[in-house]
């Protein structure tokens, strides 16, 4: 019975790895670079950063991230967290255009992080500048 549990856990990790690699490819990221995965994940995750070693374990199917990290991965890659963790009959394809607009590039995430470090006065000024720029340069 114990061997069955170990085999099931191994299969779950391998299946998660396959879905993660697919989601990375669909979001135009290489599934072959744990360094890039760790870097891109860490700019989006508010908690303690992951190591390249942890990212490699996710990619090769040796570990599954915590629920909090899983949610961050799913949001970043534009897939449902439930699908990323457990899979289902439907495989998400590339993110729809409306989903793509909700995802940020790495530089945008860094800028948001910097904005959050400002005191309230400067945050208000930065927000007003962004709103002004958006009004004078609307998206079509």
Write the layout of secondary structure elements.
Elements: H1 2-26, H2 34-44, H3 52-60, H4 67-77, H5 81-86, H6 97-102, H7 106-117, H8 120-136
- CATH architecture, please? Orthogonal Bundle
Output the structural class: mainly alpha
Overall pLDDT confidence: 84
Low-confidence stretches: 94-102
CATH topology: 434 Repressor (Amino-terminal Domain)
Work out the strand percent.
under 5%
> Largest beta sheet, briefly?
none
CATH superfamily: lambda repressor-like DNA-binding domains
Which CATH first-tier class would you pick?
A: Mainly Alpha
The rounded distance between the terminal residues' Cα atoms is: 60 Å
The helicity comes to 55-70%
How would you characterize this protein structure?
Helix 2 (34-44) crosses helix 3. The chain has 140 residues and is an all-alpha fold. The protein contains eight helices and no strands. It has one domain (2-103): lambda repressor-like DNA-binding domains (434 Repressor (Amino-terminal Domain), Orthogonal Bundle), CATH 1.10.260.40.
């Amino acid at each position: 019975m114990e061997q069955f549990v170990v085999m099931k856990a191994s299969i779950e990790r391998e299946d998660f790895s396959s879905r993660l690699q697919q989601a990375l490819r669909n979001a135009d990221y290489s599934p072959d670079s744990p360094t890039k995965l760790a870097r891109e994940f860490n700019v989006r995750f508010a908690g303690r950063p992951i190591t390249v070693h942890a990212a490699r374990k996710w990619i090769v199917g040796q570990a599954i991230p915590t629920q909090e990290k899983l949610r961050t991965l799913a949001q970043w890659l534009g897939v449902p967290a439930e699908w990323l963790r457990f899979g289902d009959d439907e495989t998400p394809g590339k993110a729809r255009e409306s989903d793509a607009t909700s995802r940020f590039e790495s530089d945008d995430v860094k800028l948001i992080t910097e904005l959050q470090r400002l005191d309230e006065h400067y945050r208000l000024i930065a927000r007003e500048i962004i709103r002004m720029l958006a009004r004078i340069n609307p998206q079509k």
